[in-house]
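Record type: monomer structure entry
Structure origin: computed from sequence
Chain ID: A
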Amino acid sequence: MKQLNYELTAISDVHDALNEVYVYTNKNPYKSLLFHLYTIKFTKDEIAKVQEEILEMYSDAKVAGTSSNGDICDGHLAEYGLVMSVSIFESTDISVYFYECASGEEEQIGLSICNTINETDKIKAAEILLTLKTINSTKVLSEVEKCKRNVKIFGGGSAGANIEETRTSVISERKISHSGVILITYSGDDIHVDIHHAIGWKSLGKELVVTKIEDKRLYELDNVPAGKIYSKYLDIQADDDFFANMLEFPLISKQHGYEVLRLPFSCDTKDDSIILAGDVKQGTVVSLSYGDPDVIKADVEDLIWNVRSFAPQAIFLYSCGVRRLYWKYLINKETGPFSLIAPVSGFYSSGEIMRMGDYIIEHHVTLIAIAMREGGQALAQPTGIGDKEIEIPEEQKMHGQLSMVRRLANFINVTSAELRAANDELREMADTDILTGLYNRRMLQRVVKSKLEYSAKYKINVIMGIIDIDDFKNVNDTYGHACGDNVLKQVAAVLREEIEVINGGICGRWGGEEFLFMLSNIEIKEALRYVDLIRSKIACSRFEDIDKITISTGITEYQRTDSVDSAFKRADAALYEAKNKGKNCTIVH
């Protein structure tokens, strides 16, 4: 196998490039010729001219390609015309199939591709190029995925010079389509294909559930409009700059156990829904992610090592246009090193496709490397021109860095505030009785101990009291526990209203139908007046389905010789006496 790559900036360049190919094929026998055409700039007419010239010289040539967000030629970004990559196979059979795809025909086309793969003798790999933004790629790939499992599958979605463009193209021998699918089959005993990928984006850690989605329109995350999530956590607003601002922050999730990214293209200003580049199932757990340069570099270095270990004769790189926009003037640092291994070609896409296990995964913001060779491991064929420098103004470098830092700082601030609020809520839940909203027994024990120690130290009067709802068991038995719960809540509301407004007053639910309260800096007579007010108020209150509710109370004044237990025992004994004296009364011990 031999690969020759040409960066064409004008139609006039085609003739010279084809002459070079002709010289090589005249001296070296071949079985198949495959021309990949990747173009960011050529018009439909210019592409048609390239197709015509290729087929004029090689009537049996196979042609396949796509419009792009940037072309890759020998490892570097080519953004001024068209890249023509010529793969010359000595023993491999290549076939190219074109499918025009109208809306609703995706499953049928996917099935046709599946059948073609299954019926192709000695097939080793299949490449799929499609206009991802105009057809339902999920339906196509779901059918293709049913083909025989040992076939390597890879490919990409066509893109435009502007990554947001929806009018893109795929190219075959004589066709250019804005709504189509191209299938390329690689068959033979001697062809070997190896596919690996690199991501490098990391989760920001905030997990969200997809609660409403229709096709690729994401309406809600955690029951919140999806656009509001981006504005809240990353200060990215639903305006004309939405796409440019969120490039570094796609959604990340797991699909069939594999990590995948989903890129939001736009946000509707009316309902804050987001259009995604790929499908996500409702109920999927996702999170915001960000591009960490060190992690991305490490992932790509692993990818380069895998490709080098395979020792290919040709490399195809299908990379997301977002990676190009992310790296800006440094993009050749990512793709250039591959040119030290073998000739490299490819394009910046709107989505990247590869078979992983039993599934065909549509990736985004991902770099896929397809290494090919005929026969055994090949010697390195470095082109040495991959690491071309791209000039960019210093202010643009600084702007990108500041934008990322500002949005990450916003995310940290918001999530930190959420964490504090969650901790406060957990703390309140740990200290509060869920039914009544008063302190629970655990908290009361801590507060009572602290309060009594403080009063002993500073010689402050403290009154402790225990309140019990009279005949509460009968309420539950007669009217049911729901009614009993309402009685507890209503009594608790009276206690909070009358006790917590007193300086130094606290109250809580001790357990069951018992409540404990403490009053500071108050004499016993005044405390009795407050308690009697509470008792009368409850006795006069109306309770649903119940004629009357009364309480009994036992109170005591804390002595300097008391422990918490001894003070509590006196209050409890006073309560016991109030119960024995007919209830609905207060006893002091």
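Annotation 1: DSSP finds 15 helices and 31 strands in the chain.
Annotation 2: Confidence is low (pLDDT under 50) at residues 395-402.
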